[in-house]
Amino acid sequence: MPTIELLVIQPTPFCNINCTYCYLPDRNSKDVVSEQTLINLFSQVFASGWLDDCLPVVWHAGEPLVLRPEFYRNAFRTIDRLKPAGVTVSHAFQTNGMLIDEAWCAFFAEEKVNVGVSIDGPRRFHDRNRLTRSGAGTFDKTIAGIRALRRAAVPFHVISVLSAESMAAPREMFDFYVAEGIREVCFNVEESEGDHVSRSLADAGIEAAYYNFLKEFWRLSASRPGSIDFIREIEQAVGQVIRPDDTPMGNQMVEPFAIVSMDWAGNLSTFSPELLGLKNAGYDDYLLGNINRDALVDLPGRPSLARMLRDIRAGVAMCRETCQYFSVCGGGEPINKMAETGTFVSTETKYCRLTKMRATDLVLDAIERAREGGNGDDCSDMGRIGLPEPAASGIEQAGN
Amino acid sequence: MKRKYFRIVSRLIPMGAVGASLLLGSVLPSSAAERPASTDTPVSQRLKAIREAAFVAAGPGEIAREAHRDFHLVWGNRWNNWGRRVVRPGWGVPWNNWRNAWPNWNNFWRNW
């Protein structure tokens, strides 16, 4: 039986801006998901038996804040009425931040919404790609939204898409986040997804640039405790590298229904959420059905799912056979394999070389340096950087 | 090779991911220094050795208890286009999934 770990809902495909790297195909459409579609979705999700005790819901795949808070209040109360006892639903928005005002901050606080704001760093990086339809930069409005969140004491994190230019400026990026009170950061790279072909990934030396960016940003953060609380790429890589040998490891993007994605019209997909809305005749456009016509629990039997799963698993098997880093990612991300190689039955992508391999290399290198006793800059040793002595070892019994 | 990593891993694990990240970050060089010599060893071997050392350092009982209780939220490769640290619903302290919030032994979606 599947387990739904994440529900991604497109409340509207519309976005009020037009980023150069956007992968969403219908961002000019002003359609809105209906209340009945939400009722059909959540009543079936809750009845499916496919849930653990909590369900994260991300409102995404368009700019969610182009709808008003009242839309979401109504939606949340509808979901609450359908929700069985013992299941907790958490809501998250990923937004460009431009429409955040006092009313939104009040809503986020009342509903305890997890807020992520997309900002690519200082104006000179942000306004290269995050543009209005008329080509104007969006930095001023986005940073105004972030400042509103801070005034209202609403917790938030940011996602910054790195370009070759911003990767070359880790200190400028770090100083910007610190000056703006941004304490939780996530770095994405400009990916090839859907119709968008990344320019950055094609740059020679981009892998070394990414490694050096993360290294310097991490070093700066560690040198000023309390400045940046969370660097997603580092925290995840540390957790994946220093993972006790007996712990299970999964990959959400290759497990059917671990992520369920629904567009505004009720169309359903799984695996990488970015697949929803893309075209592919061989896989029925990656669609498994429509929640307004089909039973969720019947979807595992769909031929299109079987075809996707067969090919995705073949690709994962190739990764397992050939990739030194398989144990940190579990077979990559189908959307990137399809976009970069044209097939799920493939292995390494530029995306995984950057986001998985180089981040893992960095953590491994840091462990080597820590093991050898410091950074070489000041001959620091473990005692000086504050590492406690380990507890009694079982290493001799366990052997080598 | 496991022995090589036991000392450092057994010091890092009790700190949780946040503390370990802070300390590992503090040993990084400020310059574009050469990478450590041991990078000649294949990555898969280094990962295996570190994890074997972590297994011994942490003790399988404690790991297994927490691991299997909340497997789906703690481990794996997750979609990352929504960005958030693994948390329990609502606001507050990040979900303390093991000791000091050891995170994300999974691959998550990155766009939130």
Explain this structure.
The complex is a heterodimer of chains A (400) and B (112). Chain A is built from 14 helices and ten strands. With 400 residues, chain A is α/β, with parallel strands linked by helices. Chain A has two domains: 6-244, TIM Barrel, CATH 3.20.20.70; 252-348, no CATH class. In chain A, strands 7-6-5-4-3-2-1-8-9-10 form a ten-stranded mixed beta sheet. In chain A, helix 2 links the parallel strand 2 and strand 3. In chain A, helix 7 packs across helix 8 and helix 9 (232-241) crosses helix 13. The longest helix of chain A is centred in the C-terminal third of the chain and has 23 residues, at 350-372. Residues 376-400 of chain A have low confidence and may be disordered. Chain B has 112 residues and is mainly alpha-helical. Chain B has helices spanning 2-12, 16-26, 43-58, 60-69, 71-74; strands at 76-81, 106-111. A two-stranded parallel sheet of chain B has the order 1-2. In chain B, helix 1 crosses helix 3. Residues 64-76 and 86-104 of chain B have low confidence and may be disordered. The chains are: A alpha/beta (400), B mainly alpha (112). At the A-B interface, strand 2, strand 3, strand 5, strand 6 and helix 8 of A face helix 1, helix 2, helix 3, helix 4 and helix 5 of B.
